[in-house]
């Protein structure tokens, strides 16, 4: 009895003094967490693996409640060394449940006393079937005596006086389901906060779990039930919740293989490896455990030889290099990392940057038609693609409808951080919910006090705010002056009527404090902005500001360091109505309808490719290298629009823009453009003779052709790095784009000069002269249209500019390509003109193309 009173005294002292302790960890009410977040996504206790570093990684990818590995309570109480080895945490590691293995109330409560200030609850393991645990009368051995187990929990609940401190139990089921229900009801009566149920018996290992078991247990209880077993994806989580009604779903092995499972990723994303390396390095994780986690994450991605190579690695540097190479090759499948740590990227990825270049050179693009120049061009293109991919990885700008990451901010950092720019459509008053814009998501780190604001900025104000925060003496008052006049804030600006900001971070497991009506918040999220404009579509920017309102309602900087985790969605139309128009719901207004445009263009060019393939297989140009080059150019257009379609489909399906795909598309467009221009120059230069008759021109062409190609690709890469911040835009809107237009004018000048010389040679043939005049005037329009667009681009509204420019480019290129394809048609006017030319010899032309290609190869190898 005295022992029990001593326990009560310890708990009273802990509760009374917890506000004055140096540990500033925020306490989370686990019961409220279940009521606010269904289904709650939980990581299971995993011996050796669910330590602090791995829990940090899981929280980064959507895990809402973490368990420590199972700890033997008796050893934990008796040994300081055991406590240091088995348990570690920090202020950001929340909410957290510590799981103990114990066979009596004293050990369980004493262990809970030790960790009380550093966690939000304790869990008693009653499911572990391992021999060591059974020999200690712990784990699943407790299931042999249900009454003893219930009494153990009852006494623990009486002695742990903080009613908000969670006590839970993790059990396995009995063969008789009724016995399982009886045990759960006894534990509920004993005072547990929630119960974790593994859907297998003690004897079972890998047998399938019956979801109906969870449903029966849930229907018999009033407390939250957590289901565990056979969960391999996010869809399984939602399936358990919908079909069994459980409030939480616990995942173990599948999280080791894919820590991003709760985000919906079907395999470990590329950035996850680099985050794990960062956390492991910061926490000095032992190499064996670090290596084991990497092995789990890569398990499904490696072949047999790679797994053997990984197993032989014995030091961190070798492992870093192996992961960097492996993940670099996988980046094309996974998409762009959201925030790969720059240190790791520079040390472990760029040292092997050529690996991506090697990987990107597919054998099927090598010349199977004896065209050596195609090999040179493909090497040039894929090397440039590699460079663009690496630039994209190291860029901070993510063009996406879904943004997620961490905001690490201190007193020396800029006051304003732009997250995204998004065009919201015009609102229809007759159908508000379907046509409004919505921004919703979560932003938290467990801090209780405001540390900044998430703000919404109209496009009209963005330049003014950017000017302020870039100035040397920028202040929060200047930065927030416009919003202070308009935005509502309950304490300081109660008379304003606009909804433009949220105080951050939001409480873990609850909505943001500025959300005054829970029904206005999208279910499962902490905050929601509703954008409504019945006058016009408009661009809005989302930003984080390192400013707070002090007691006198003045804007002042937040001087402490903050590390926030956020996940935000920007969409047109209510999320529940996304199926009404899935091709536009997740697109910014200036990109709506672009998927349909790209699909149409892709189909059109596929048809053109088929037509030209037929013409060169049945006409006199079968061995004519110009016709084969034209076929490859049409194929480049098909590939370009296929890449664009893939980029748009990724947004439709997952809401994330795969930025390297976008940049590779730009490179394909630019490559096809300059090669088509060079083909036109060659056509004009060699008409109707071959290069053999004009050795000076052949030399000029073989020098300036590769130079023009190199300049075009270089400027395209520069344009990729010079895009307007957070706005999708065409390359003609950048300074390298203007240089590309200047290069285009030079190529046009070259084309017209050579055409004029060819006209002088055709004075005796009026038909061929007329053909050249029409040919030159038509393709001069193609050369000049993009320059005219560049001059007029500022006249288009930014809301329509992107799709208008892409539509015009598609139309102009299709007409130009179709006209050239028609010239190679068996019954075309070109056939007749060449047939009437006694000097024409297709074999000579073919041979001269070989000389031209050889000159390109020599020129390329010399550089």
TrEMBL record:
InterPro entries: Aldolase_TIM, DUS-like_FMN-bd, GPR180/TMEM145_TM
Residue ranges annotated for the DUS-like FMN-binding domain, each copy included: 44-302
GO biological process, any: response to pheromone
Sequence intervals crossing the membrane: 597-616, 628-661, 667-688, 700-722, 734-752, 772-792, 804-825
Cross-referenced Gene3D superfamilies: Aldolase class I (3.20.20.70)
Ranges where the GPR180/TMEM145 transmembrane domain occurs: 616-820
Any one GO MF annotation of this record: tRNA dihydrouridine synthase activity
One Pfam assignment: Dus
Record key words, sorted: Membrane, Transmembrane, Transmembrane helix
Name of this protein: tRNA-dihydrouridine(20a/20b) synthase [NAD(P)+]-like
């Amino acid at each position: 009895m005295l022992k029990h009173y001593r326990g009560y005294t310890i708990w009273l002292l802990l509760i009374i003094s917890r506000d004055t302790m140096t540990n500033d960890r925020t306490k989370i009410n686990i019961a409220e967490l279940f009521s606010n977040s269904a289904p709650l996504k939980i990581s299971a206790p995993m011996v050796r693996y669910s330590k602090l570093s791995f829990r940090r990684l899981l929280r980064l990818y959507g895990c809402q409640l973490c368990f420590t590995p199972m700890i033997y309570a008796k050893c934990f109480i008796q040994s300081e060394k055991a406590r240091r080895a088995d348990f570690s945490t920090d202020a950001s590691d929340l909410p957290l449940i510590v799981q103990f293995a114990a066979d009596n109330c004293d050990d369980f409560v004493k262990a809970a006393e030790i960790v009380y200030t550093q966690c939000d609850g304790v869990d008693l393991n009653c499911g572990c079937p391992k021999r060591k645990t059974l020999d200690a009368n712990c784990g699943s051995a407790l299931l042999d005596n249900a009454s003893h187990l219930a009494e153990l929990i009852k006494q623990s609940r009486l002695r742990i006086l903080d009613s908000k401190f969670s006590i839970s139990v993790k059990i396995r089921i009995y063969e008789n389901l009724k016995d399982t229900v009886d045990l759960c009801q006894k534990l509920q009566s004993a005072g547990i906060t929630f119960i974790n149920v593994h859907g297998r018996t003690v004897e079972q290992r890998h047998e399938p779990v019956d979801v109906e078991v969870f449903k029966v247990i849930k229907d018999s209880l009033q407390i939250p039930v957590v289901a565990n077993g056979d969960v391999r994806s996010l869809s399984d989580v939602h399936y358990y919740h919908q079909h069994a009604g459980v409030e939480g779903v616990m995942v173990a092995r599948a999280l080791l293989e894919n820590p991003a499972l709760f985000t919906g990723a079907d395999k470990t994303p590329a950035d996850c490896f680099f985050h794990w390396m960062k956390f492991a390095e910061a926490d000095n994780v032992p190499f064996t455990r670090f290596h084991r986690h990497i092995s789990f994450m890569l398990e499904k991605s490696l072949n047999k030889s790679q797994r053997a190579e990984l197993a032989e690695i014995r030091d961190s540097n070798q492992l870093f290099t192996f992961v960097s190479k492996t993940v670099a090759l996988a980046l094309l499948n996974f998409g762009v990392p959201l925030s790969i740590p720059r240190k790791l990227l520079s040390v472990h990825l760029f040292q092997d940057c050529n690996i991506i270049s090697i990987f990107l050179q597919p054998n099927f693009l090598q010349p199977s038609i004896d065209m050596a120049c195609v090999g040179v061009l493909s090497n040039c293109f894929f090397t440039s693609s590699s460079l663009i991919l690496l630039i994209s990885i190291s860029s901070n700008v993510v063009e996406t409808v879904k943004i997620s990451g961490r905001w690490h901010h201190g007193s020396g950092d800029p006051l304003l951080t732009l997250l995204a720019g998004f065009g919201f459509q015009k609102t229809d008053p007759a159908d508000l919910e379907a046509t409004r814009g919505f921004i919703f998501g979560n932003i938290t780190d467990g801090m209780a006090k405001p540390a900044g604001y998430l703000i919404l900025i109209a496009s009209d104000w963005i330049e003014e705010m950017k000017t302020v925060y870039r100035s040397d003496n920028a202040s929060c008052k200047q930065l927030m002056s416009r919003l202070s006049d308009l935005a509502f804030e309950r304490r300081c600006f109660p008379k304003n009527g606009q909804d433009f900001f949220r105080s951050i971070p939001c409480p873990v497991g609850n909505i943001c404090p500025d959300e005054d009506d829970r029904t206005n918040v999208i279910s499962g999220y902490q905050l929601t902005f509703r954008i409504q404009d019945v006058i016009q579509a408009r661009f809005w920017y989302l930003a984080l500001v390192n400013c707070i309102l002090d007691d006198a309602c003045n804007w002042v900087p937040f001087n402490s360091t903050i590390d926030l985790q956020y996940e935000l969605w920007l969409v047109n139309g209510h999320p529940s109505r996304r199926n009404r128009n899935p091709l536009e719901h997740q697109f910014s207004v200036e990109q709506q309808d672009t998927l349909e445009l790209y699909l149409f263009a892709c189909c059109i060019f596929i048809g053109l490719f088929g037509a030209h393939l037929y013409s060169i297989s049945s006409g006199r140009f079968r061995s004519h290298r110009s016709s084969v080059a034209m076929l490859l150019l049409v194929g480049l257009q098909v590939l370009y629009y296929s890449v664009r379609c893939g980029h748009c489909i990724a947004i439709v399906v997952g809401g994330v823009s795969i930025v390297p795909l976008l940049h590779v598309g730009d490179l394909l467009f630019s490559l096809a453009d300059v090669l088509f221009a060079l083909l036109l120059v060659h056509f004009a230069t060699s008409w109707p003779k071959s290069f053999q008759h004009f050795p000076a021109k052949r030399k000029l062409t073989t020098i300036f052709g590769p130079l023009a190609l190199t300049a075009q690709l270089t400027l395209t890469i520069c344009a990729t790095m010079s895009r307007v911040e957070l706005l999708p835009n065409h390359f003609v809107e950048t300074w390298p784009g203007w240089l590309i237009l200047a290069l285009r004018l030079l190529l046009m000048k070259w084309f017209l000069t050579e055409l004029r010389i060819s006209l002088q040679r055709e004075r005796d043939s009026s038909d061929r002269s007329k053909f050249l005049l029409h040919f030159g005037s038509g393709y001069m329009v193609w050369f000049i249209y993009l320059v005219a667009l560049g001059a007029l681009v500022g006249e288009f509204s930014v809301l329509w500019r992107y799709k208008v420019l892409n539509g015009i480019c598609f139309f102009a290129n299709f007409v130009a390509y179709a006209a050239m394809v028609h010239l190679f048609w068996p019954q075309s006017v070109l056939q007749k003109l060449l047939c009437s030319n006694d000097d024409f010899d297709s074999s000579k032309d073919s041979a001269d193309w070989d000389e031209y290609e050889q000159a390109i190869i020599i020129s390329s190898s010399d550089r």
